[in-house]
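User: My collaborator sent over this chain with a note saying "see what the structure looks like." That's all I know about it. Can you take a look?
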Amino acid sequence: MQNIAPTNEQSRTLHKTIKQVTGDIQQLQFNTAIARMMEFTNFFTKETVRPREVLEKFVLILSPFAPHLAEELWQLLGHTKSLAYEPWPTYDEALTKDAEIEIPVQILGKLRGKVVVPAGSDQASLIAAARADARIAELLTGKEVVKTIVVPGKLVNFVVK
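Assistant: Without extra context I'll predict from the sequence alone. Here is the result:
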């Protein structure tokens, strides 16, 4: 734990966690809130540097689920007052969105590969990225594409003869 600025990936993980846990608590979906906090913990366990700012916010969202443990962690982070008087952390909506997404590519309904594209790509971009993938291009060689089904942000499926 160090007093340094979090990386972009660390910030995205933190803000996604805050957003989901906040929403899950409001909807009384505690199991999914805990699952998201476990994902956060798994991500940061692999990190060599853990920024103090990120850990403090995580301890705050952990506190409704494990109040005594959260108080102990809060003191270990160097705070003398109870975390009960701290405001709930807020998230930046821009940091909760992924810059890139992975799209599965199917041929005749069978998964044949995946491509990484910018989030919000249009149909033409998804088709171009799918055709540019070496494995997909090889599988489409010599076949006639009868129809291309695109679900934006979800999948590309080539129907071939």
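A starting point for your reply to your collaborator: Helices lie at 8-26, 30-46, 52-62, 67-76, 123-132, 134-140.
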